[in-house]
Every structure is written in structure tokens, then in C-alpha cells.
Amino acid sequence: MSAVGKSTNIFWQECSVGKLDRQKLLKQKGCVVWITGLSGSGKSTLACTLDQELYSRSKLAYVLDGDNLRHGLNKDLGFSTEDRTENIRRVGEVAKLFADAGLICIASLISPYRKDRDSCRGILPESSFIEVFMNMPLELCEARDPKGLYKLARAGKIKGFTGIDDPYEPPLNCEIEIKQENGVCPSPNAMAGQVVGYLEDKGFLHE
Ligand SMILES: Nc1ncnc2c1ncn2[C@@H]1O[C@H](COP(=O)(O)OS(=O)(=O)O)[C@@H](OP(=O)(O)O)[C@H]1O
Ligand SMILES: Nc1ncnc2c1ncn2[C@@H]1O[C@H](COP(=O)(O)OP(=O)(O)O)[C@@H](O)[C@H]1O
């Protein structure tokens, strides 16, 4: 019996089917691929391309996309520092459950603050949090501006926009960095290939 946060008199319930059993069934190892970067850096593109590539290899993945989760689970949250922290905390907890279920959980969120990403890393089993940094220049993201949000932010119509008037703290020790080569962004398939290569090397694509 213990107390956790505001909950008192709570118990941990164990079931007979464990993570190892599920991984055996799925022929893969559960993990979290956490994609961080500026708006427009290609997070969702990588998440969906990676999801498709894993599916084509009969590997079960699931995408947790920041924008999408803000339509449901996180619709009570805005973009203040506190709300972004709570957003990342919740998604980290959900991602942990998916990884425990044996899935390759692909989380794609700006997740601008280093300490929040590090907290997510801290709740996952050793080596199973794979941080992918979309290291794209702000100028490229702003030039892409697929939703017109940078334009609104520059015009002062959106306050606290990441990269404009709200900070983005790049990872110091990420597992994978996606960046331009000679000023050219790798294709979506090449970006996904980089992540698949890592998952393959580290043994996540086998039980
Ligand atoms: N102020 C501000 N700053 C940054 N982004 C904003 C903002 N307001 C709305 N949006 C839109 O919300 C998407 C980011 O949501 P996230 O949950 O990933 O953000 S965060 O991790 O909590 O910072 C982000 O999606 P992406 O462009 O896919 O990154 C935007 O579409
Ligand atoms: N590797 C890439 N090469 C060329 N264009 C890309 C690439 N990745 C993303 N894009 C384009 O950039 C824009 C932003 O990508 P998106 O995945 O929505 O970014 P984010 O989820 O980080 O906001 C989209 O128009 C997308 O088609």
C-alpha cells in the first residue's frame, strides 16, 4: 500500500501476462521513439513514414502526435510553459504504457524543454527511450510554414510561438539526429531509414 501524488491507499496490480510475453507474441521489443523539433521541422512526416515502414515489415507501431492529442487527451492544455510541461508528462506516461504493451511507440511533439524530455526518458526502462532530434534550421521551418503559423507569430497574432518568442532547447545527447546534408534535407524515406537502422542495430525489431 502506498501514496502516489494525490492518491492514497493504492496498490499495484500485477497480471500473469507480462511484457516479455507480449514481446514474444509481437516478435519485437517495446520502446519509445521520441521525435522533437520545431514546428515544421518534419516530425509528423517522419512519424508517419516510419510507422508505414515498420508496418511493411510486420512491426506494430503507434503514433502519438502532439497536434492530434491536443484534440482529445490534452484538449484542456494550451501553450504556456506549465501546460507544455503537463502535455509532455502525459504523453510520456501514455508512451510508457504503449512500450510496456510491446509496441514501438512513435511520439512526435515539439517538446521544447529539455527537462521535460529528460523526465520522459527517466520513466522508461534503460535504452528504450530513443530521442530523435529534427535539427532543421528555423529559416527552413519558417519557409515551409505549412499551416501559416509562423506568419501569424511574426505578425504578433500568436503569442509564445516556439522558435519565435518561446524557447526551443535542443537535445544534448540524443540517440539520433536528423539534419541537412550540404543544405539539403534528407527525404522522408531516408529519415525513416535512419531510425529503422538504429532500431535494427539495437535489436528492437526482434523479440
Ligand atoms: N504557440 C505555439 N507554439 C508551438 N506550436 C503551436 C503553438 N500554437 C499552436 N501550435 C500548434 O501546436 C502544435 C504543437 O503541439 P505540441 O503538443 O507538439 O507542442 S508542445 O510539445 O507542447 O510544445 C504545432 O504543431 P507542429 O507544427 O506539428 O509542431 C502547431 O501546429
Ligand atoms: N524530409 C522532408 N523533405 C521535404 N519536405 C519535408 C520533409 N519533411 C517534412 N517536409 C514538409 O515540411 C512540412 C512540415 O512537415 P511536418 O511533418 O508537418 O512538420 P512538423 O510535424 O514538425 O510540424 C510539410 O509540408 C512536409 O511535407
In short:
With 207 residues, the protein is α/β, with parallel strands linked by helices. It is built from eight helices and seven strands; from the N terminus they run ββαβαβααβαβααβα. The protein is globular.
Q: What structural class results from the helix and strand content? A: alpha/beta
CATH class: Alpha Beta
| Order of the strands making up the biggest sheet | 4-5-3-6-7
Distance between the termini: 34 Å
Binned strand content:
15-25%
Radius of gyration: 18 Å
Domains (count): 1
Order of helices and strands: EEHEHEHHEHEHHEH
Instruction: Catalogue the unreliable spans.
Output: none
Helicity, as a percent range? 40-55%
Secondary structure tally, helices: 8
CATH topology: Rossmann fold
- Ligand species: 3'-phosphate-adenosine-5'-phosphate sulfate, adenosine-5'-diphosphate
pLDDT averaged over residues: 97
- What's the number of extended β-strand segments? 7
Q: Give the overall silhouette.
A: globular
Please outline the major beta sheet.
5 strands, parallel
- CATH homology superfamily name: P-loop containing nucleotide triphosphate hydrolases
Architecture, CATH level 2?
Answer: 3-Layer(aba) Sandwich
